[in-house]
Specification:
transmembrane helix; YlaH; elongated; mainly alpha; transmembrane; membrane
Length: 101
């Protein structure tokens, strides 16, 4: 897999950029920024991803590590949604039981 990423640097860069943007939005974003600041932040991220691409091409598993982080964040998000759904469903069942008694 590492050699495939080395042979396709554009795909590697786009994956690194996509993972970086997702991680930034999921973890570090506090609120909406004005559009100019948003553009500047994404340009700086794109430049920083070039450094990560160089490390990836130097045979470090950057994409694999970032994909593990994204999968763990998606699992956490899924668990939070499940807990919210479960709490809402549990509250509705408790209300039905109270009206039956």
């Amino acid at each position: 897999m590492q050699t495939w990423f080395h042979d396709h640097p554009i795909v590697s860069y786009l994956l690194i950029l996509a993972f970086t943007i997702y991680i930034f939005n999921a973890v570090f974003r506090m609120g909406k920024l004005p559009i100019l600041k948003e553009i500047i932040v994404h340009i700086i991220m794109a430049i920083g991803c070039l450094v990560l691409l160089l490390l990836q091409l130097d045979k470090l598993p950057i994409i694999q590590c970032m994909s593990v982080a994204v999968v763990m964040m998606l699992m956490l998000r899924g668990r939070q949604m499940y807990d919210k759904w479960r709490a809402k469903r549990g509250g509705a069942e408790a209300a039905v039981k109270r009206t039956e008694s």
